[in-house]
Amino acid sequence: MEPVEGESKRDCWTVAFGNAYNQEERVVCAGYDNGDIKLFDLKTMSLRWETNIKNGVCSLEFDRKDINMNKLVATSLEGKFHVFDMRTQHPTKGFACVSEKAHKSTVWQVRHLPQNRDIFVTSGGAGSLHLWKYEYPAQRSKKDSEGADMGVAGSVSLLQNVTLSTQPISSLDWSPDKKGLCVCTAFDQTLRVLIVTKLNKV
What we know:
Blueprint: E1 12-18, E2 27-32, E3 36-41, E4 46-52, E5 57-62, E6 71-76, E7 80-90, E8 94-101, E9 107-113, E10 116-124, E11 128-135, E12 141-143, E13 149-151, E14 155-163, E15 169-174, E16 181-186, E17 191-195
Antiparallel strand pairs: 1-2, 2-3, 3-4, 5-6, 6-7, 7-8, 9-10, 10-11, 11-14, 12-13, 15-16, 16-17
Keywords: Repeat, WD repeat
Protein name: WD repeat domain 92
Organism: Nothoprocta perdicaria
């Protein structure tokens, strides 16, 4: 999958699968160095949606790969992340989005908690981890002036944060079995195993 002839070729920094709720449906989302986010439908092999967050896209993740598209989080070079509500696509405005300044440096990665898709962690270039919770709005969609459905973005709140290193935390993964157990790596050549407690109370 590459740009058509004549289009400029940008560096693709991150990809994520999603919408795999049956044997046929699949999408792949790609983030680029110029801030482009492109959603490709693998069933029809076509571009389904695109947007630009004005800064290099470091990490993308759907809250679940194997359900109807629900939420997509994109992190960027400038310290922001963007949460897109993927349930309702407006013909011209696309998906509703909420943005948050998460770190004072690059947000290297986002990872959703396997046992609760509304909780996710972001890792920063200054060696910190931030734990977030997404709150849905009272109504996830509404009609615009022309009667078309458009999504309504929710809100995000910071649950906890910790600084583990003076170097960027480049990678993190949650345990699918033990709630709150995770592992991360940083540029200080250290692998850390962490446990996040009280997740059943948020």
